[in-house]
Description:
Order of helices and strands: EHEHEHEHHEHEHEEEEE
Distance between the termini: 19 Å
Shape: globular
Low-confidence stretches: none
Number of domains: 1
CATH architecture: 3-Layer(aba) Sandwich
Number of strands: 11
CATH topology: Rossmann fold
Helix content: 10-25%
CATH superfamily: Class I glutamine amidotransferase (GATase) domain
Number of helices: 7
Largest sheet: 7 strands, mixed
Oligomer: single chain
Radius of gyration: 17 Å
Strand content: 15-25%
Structural class: alpha/beta
Amino acid sequence: MKNIIIASTSTIHGSGYLDYILEELNTFFKEAETILFIPYARPGGISHDEYTNIVKTAFTKINKTVKGIHEFENPVEAIANAEAIFTGGGNTFVLTDMLHRNHLIEAIQNVVKNGTPYLGTSAGSNICGLTIRTTNDMPIVYPPSFNALALVPFNINPHYLDPDTNSKHMGETRETRIKEFHGFNPQPVVGLREGSWLRVSGDSIVLKGHLTARIFEKGKSPCEVEPETELNTLK
């Protein structure tokens, strides 16, 4: 049975890394002593070791040990043996490229579908969708495929931002870009605002946090859904 948290971000304004969701994670990871961290997205170009150390420090607050997947000789084997998995944010294209090249897409799909807890934030949430075509990131590398883990039957847009009515910037809004996506692609998109997450338990997909999410479906007007809304019918 799938057991997943898909979070918009790792850090909200005025809070430390994962602090806003640590209480939830303490319950979510209650059966795991060690969490396998995937640092491939490398925010700001930091090393895998530097990124993993940030995550290790955060998880000491709930008495969890963290090991980076790059510390293992065989990453596929590391996934197969993981008690729990966390994929952090950064650049979604870099992350996806590394997952494909290390043959980890199917490996992660298999263990998560069999119940291994999976946490994603930002880029690590982007890859939970059907494709990464609704990421906000620059394509600084060219992955072999834009196909992602398909752990939910739609695409994710983390860090979703509403138009700023006070801004003089006349460029595209996030909503405009998602509408452009639907000019070529049929997949629904869930716009997750900062501090929101999706809790996946088996076939159930529920919006959590204190904010609404914005739902985009091809050929329909965008709509808002309230926290605790079930999204498993969105396809």
